[in-house]
Amino acid sequence: MREERSRIWVDPFQSKLFLRVVGYWLIYQFSLWNCLFAWRLLAEGQGNLLEQYGRFCLEFYPMLLCFLVLVPFFAWDAVRFSHRLVGPISRFRQAMQDIAAGQPVRPIQLRQGDYLSDLQDDFNAMLAALRQRGLVTTADDAAGDDARTAVLFPQVSEKA
Q1: Over its length of 160 residues, how does the chain's per-residue pLDDT go in tens digits?
Q2: Contact in structure between 114 and 90 (CB atoms under 8 Å)
Q3: Distance (Å, whole) CA 130 – CA 95
Q4: b vs e for 19-58, b when ≥16 Cβ sit within 10 Å of the residue's Cβ?
């Protein structure tokens, strides 16, 4: 049973990661641009600084153009990649909230390629132990209760 990813941006962590990736790349580009200009000044020697900078910009603008074209793709890929971590965290958080609210909980089933699969196994083992102690109801238990109620009290199930 494979669930499709309907939303890629599911957690504020992804926004922070997105901004950090873009910020680092801007710092890198700014540093690279200035280092290239300084190198150019060393190679050309003294002259009119404004004129030298204008020529430098005309010669190296393709680098900035390439940067502007690639940044959105790299940032989007970082967010999609982070979803392999944030998606499972979101599932664990929802399951914990359901347990705290006394709602039936399903064992966690992560998608192939998601991170935290070891945590999935540990969480499901904890859920099974809590179920055995009667401290938590799983979704399977709740479905079984509905089926038993329908057999024992058909009028109750028909009203629901």
Answers
A1: 455 556 777 778 878 888 888 888 889 989 999 999 999 888 888 888 899 889 998 998 898 888 889 888 887 888 788 888 888 888 899 999 998 898 888 899 998 888 888 899 999 999 999 889 888 887 776 665 544 333 333 333 344 3
A2: no
A3: 13
A4: eebeeeeeeeeeeebeeebeeeeeeeeeeeeeebeeebee
Residue that the structure tokens 């393709």 belong to:
62
Place of tokens 């064992």: 107
- Give the amino acid at 83: H
Instruction: Check: CB of residue 92 under 8 Å from CB of residue 119.
Output: yes
Q: Which residues pair with 105 in a beta bridge?
A: 138
| Beta carbons of 85 and 115 less than 8 angstroms apart | yes
Spatial separation of the C-alpha atoms in residues 101 and 104, rounded to whole Å = 9
Residue 88 tokens, joined: 């499972």
Hey, how many other C-beta atoms are within 10 angstroms of the C-beta on 99?
Answer: 17
Name every residue whose Cβ is closer than 8 Å to that of residue 108 and which is 6 or more positions away in sequence: 88, 91, 92, 95, 120, 123, 124, 127
